[in-house]
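Hi everyone, sorry if this is the wrong subforum. Our group has a chain we'd like a structural model of before ordering constructs, and none of us has done structure prediction before. Sequence below.
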Amino acid sequence: MLYVLKNDKIEYSKVTNIIIEIKKGFYAPLTMEGTLLINNILTSCFALVKDHHLAQYYMFPFRYYYKLNKLFYLNDPLYISNSEGLHWTIKMIFYFATYFTPQILII
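Answer:
Right subforum, don't worry. Here is the predicted structure as tokens:
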């Protein structure tokens, strides 16, 4: 089941078909809410986790680190627009999560 937007309401919808595509690389935007609405389908911003809400809890420091930096640097507060890979704070939070609660990860 997926959450989908129908008639301005979020509802469940049954998955009727799955197509597997293998591609190299990915882009995972992080939002303050931890979700994205794409093509009327609500999705989590988090990869490699079993529990979206716990991942959102772990990302609390990064989200507010961003908010604080946004006050001082208007365009690119974390200097990440031209970088690849994970931001150093995300790496630190991921390490913390794997050390204290590895059962939340899919890896």
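For your construct planning: The chain has a mean pLDDT of 78. The chain has one domain: 2-104.
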